[in-house]
C-alpha cells in the first residue's frame, strides 16, 4: 500500500486533483463551450473591517501552488494581521487555476486559524516561555503546520520531532507520565535520576511532579533529588485540578521556603489564554495544545471580482479589484486599488507571483514572519481589549 495513512500526495495537490468535484464539471463545461475568461479573484474572509484582527499565513504554500502557472498573484506578507478585505488576489485565465481553489483556501484557512489562536496565547502571557504541545490533536501529516504557525505567532518552541526536522528547529520536551509509571510509585526519584543520567546535557532538567503524590510533595522531592534541576512541570488534569492557581502558588511557596527559588514552574494540561492570564505571575512557562489546535479555520472564500476587465460580484460580495492598507493609527482600510489610498496608508497586498515566477526571495522566512506578526499585533492592539 503506497499511501497507508490516506493523505493526499503533494503531486496530486500540485496537479489540481485536490479539488471539489464541481470545479471539474466547470472545467468540462467551459472547455466544451470554448470559453476561458480572464478574471481577477480575491481571497477574503470579511468584506469590511470588523475590529477582529486575524493572522494570515500559508503564503509560502500559495507561492508553491502557483509557481509555473500563467497567473499573477498578490498577497499579504506571511504573518501580517488583517481585518476584512482580500488577503490574496489571483489574476489570469480562469481555467489556469480554477481547480486549485479548494487547495489554496485550505493552505490559508487552517494555518491562519492556528496562528491566530497561538497569537492569543502569546499575548495572554507575553513574558512567559511558551511551547506548542498540540500536535497530538491533529493528523500527523499536518503537525508541522501547527508548529510553524505557533512559532510564527511568537511561541518559543514545540514538541513534535518530525516537525522540527522539517522546520530546522529542535523539538523540546522532557518526560511524560508514562516514564514515571514505568518506575512505579515511590520510585519517582529513581525516574528523575535515570532521566538526568540518560539524556543529553543540553536538555533542560524539568521533572514531572504530579503523577502519584500531591504536587508539593513531588516537587520538593525532585528539587532535593537533582542538583541539576531546572524546573518542575505540573500537568494536573482538569478532572481533579480544583483551584489550579492555588496549587501552583502553594508549590512556588514551598519551593522558595526550602531554598529552591531558582527552580522554575511549568504548567500544561488543557490550558488556554484565560488560564495563562491567571497563572502568568506564578508560573515561568506553559505548554499549550488544544487552545491552538481546536481553533476554527479562518473562513476564507475565493470570488471573482473582475471579468474581462469589468467589475463583477456575486450577491453579498464587493465587486472590483481592491487593495488593503495599514493606516498610521493601526487601522485596516479596504479600498478599490485604482483609487487614492488613505493618508499614510501602507499597501499590504504585494506581488508574490508574476506570470508563474515567484518574485519574493523571503517567502518562507519564518523569523521575518514572526517579527512581522508581533509588530502588527502591537500596531493594531491585538488582544488589548481582553
Q: What does this protein look like?
A:
The chain has 386 residues and is α/β, with parallel strands linked by helices. The protein folds into 2 domains: 10-114 and 296-380, nicotinate phosphoribosyltransferase, CATH 3.20.140.10; 127-293, Alpha-Beta Barrel (TIM Barrel). It is built from 14 helices and 18 strands. The chain has helices spanning 10-14, 21-33, 59-66, 101-124, 143-152, 161-167, 177-183, 188-198, 215-225, 238-241, 244-257, 273-279, 290-293, 366-380, and strands spanning 38-44, 54-55, 72-75, 81-82, 86-93, 129-132, 157-158, 206-208, 231-234, 264-267, 285-288, 301-307, 310-311, 322-326, 332-336, 346-347, 350-354, 357-358. The protein has a 7-stranded antiparallel sheet, covered by helices on one side. It has a 6-stranded parallel sheet with strand order 7-6-11-10-9-8. Strand 14 and strand 15 (332-336) form a beta hairpin. Helix 4 packs across helix 5 and helix 5 packs across helix 6. The longest helix is centred in the N-terminal third of the chain and has 24 residues, at 101-124. The protein is elongated, with a radius of gyration of 25 Å.
Amino acid at each position: 500500500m503506497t499511501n497507508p495513512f490516506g493523505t493526499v500526495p503533494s503531486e496530486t495537490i500540485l496537479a489540481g486533483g485536490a479539488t471539489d468535484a464541481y470545479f471539474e464539471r466547470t472545467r468540462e463545461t467551459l472547455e466544451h463551450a470554448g470559453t476561458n475568461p480572464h478574471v481577477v479573484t480575491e481571497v477574503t474572509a470579511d468584506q469590511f473591517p470588523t475590529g477582529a484582527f486575524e493572522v494570515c499565513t500559508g503564503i509560502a504554500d500559495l507561492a508553491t501552488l502557483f509557481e509555473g502557472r500563467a497567473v499573477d498573484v498578490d498577497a499579504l506578507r506571511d504573518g501580517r494581521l488583517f481585518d476584512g478585505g482580500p488577503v490574496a488576489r489571483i489574476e489570469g485565465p480562469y481555467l489556469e487555476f480554477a481547480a486549485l481553489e479548494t487547495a489554496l483556501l485550505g493552505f490559508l484557512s487552517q494555518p491562519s486559524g492556528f496562528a491566530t489562536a497561538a497569537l492569543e496565547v502569546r499575548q495572554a502571557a507575553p513574558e512567559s516561555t511558551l511551547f506548542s504541545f498540540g500536535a497530538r490533536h491533529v493528523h500527523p501529516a499536518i503537525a508541522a503546520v501547527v508548529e510553524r504557525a505557533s512559532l510564527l505567532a511568537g511561541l518559543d518552541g514545540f514538541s513534535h520531532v518530525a516537525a522540527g526536522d522539517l522546520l530546522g528547529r529542535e523539538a523540546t520536551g522532557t518526560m511524560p507520565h508514562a516514564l514515571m509509571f514505568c518506575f512505579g510509585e515511590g520510585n519517582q526519584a529513581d525516574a528523575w535520576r535515570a532521566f538526568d543520567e540518560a539524556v543529553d546535557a543540553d536538555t533542560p532538567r524539568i521533572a514531572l511532579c504530579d503523577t502519584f503524590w500531591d504536587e508539593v510533595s513531588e516537587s520538593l522531592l525532585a528539587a532535593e533529588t537533582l542538583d541539576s534541576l531546572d524546573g518542575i512541570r505540573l500537568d494536573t488534569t482538569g478532572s481533579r485540578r480544583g483551584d489550579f492557581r492555588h496549587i501552583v502558588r502553594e508549590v512556588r511557596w514551598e519551593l522558595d521556603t526550602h531554598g529552591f527559588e531558582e527552580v522554575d514552574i511549568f504548567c500544561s494540561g488543557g490550558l488556554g489564554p484565560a488560564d495563562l492570564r491567571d497563572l502568568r505571575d506564578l508560573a515561568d512557562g506553559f505548554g499549550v495544545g488544544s487552545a491552538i489546535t481546536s481553533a476554527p479555520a479562518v473562513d476564507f472564500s475565493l470570488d471573482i471580482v473582475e471579468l474581462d476587465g469589468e467589475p463583477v460580484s456575486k450577491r453579498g460580495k464587493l465587486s472590483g479589484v481592491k487593495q488593503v492598507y495599514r493606516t498610521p493609527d493601526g487601522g485596516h482600510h479596504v479600498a478599490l486599488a485604482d483609487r487614492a489610498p488613505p493618508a499614510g496608508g501602507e499597501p499590504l497586498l504585494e506581488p508574490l507571483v508574476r506570470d508563474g515566477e515567484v518574485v519574493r526571495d523571503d517567502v518562507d522566512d519564518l523569523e521575518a514572519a514572526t517579527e512581522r506578526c508581533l509588530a502588527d499585533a502591537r500596531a493594531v492592539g491585538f488582544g488589548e481589549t481582553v
